[in-house]
Amino acid sequence: MTSVRHGGARYVRSLLMGYDGQVNGTLHHNPYFPGGWLAMAPPLAEGAVPYTDGSPTTVEQYATDVATFLQWSADP
């Protein structure tokens, strides 16, 4: 995903954090997605995954970790 989208890991991180709560039927608004609406509900929630090292359990931290991992795994 980070290799094929313009903006790479920054795009993925922005997309994961960009939900603004607007819903139109089954579509969720996210200004970072082309067209602004997508069927995927917000995939991250505060406190969903505990970190044993004391890292913050925020959507921002989760999005950063996911985008960083995807970038790392896409690197040949």
Describe this structure in words.
The protein is of the alpha+beta class. It is built from two helices and three strands. A three-stranded antiparallel β-sheet has the order 1-2-3, with no helix packed on it. A hairpin with a 2-residue loop joins strand 1 and strand 2. Helix 1 packs antiparallel against helix 2. The longest helix is centred in the last third of the chain and has 16 residues. The protein starts with 7 loop residues before the first helix and ends with a helix. The model has no long low-confidence stretch (mean pLDDT 94).
Q: Which structural class best describes the helix and strand composition?
A: alpha+beta
| Major beta sheet summary | 3 strands, antiparallel
DSSP helix fraction = 25-40%
> How would you spell out the order of helices and strands?
HEEEH
- The average pLDDT is 94
Distance between the termini: 14 Å
Strand content: 5-15%
The rough form would be described as: flat
Radius of gyration: 13 Å
Poorly predicted spans: none
In terms of topology, how is this protein built?
Blueprint: H1 8-17, E1 23-24, E2 27-29, E3 37-38, H2 59-74
Antiparallel strand pairs: 1-2, 2-3
Helix pairs in contact: 1-2
Quick structural summary:
With 76 residues, the chain is an alpha+beta fold. The chain contains 2 helices and 3 strands. The protein is 34% helix and 9% strand.
What descriptors fit this protein?
76 residues, alpha+beta, three-stranded antiparallel β-sheet, 3 strands, 34% helix, flat
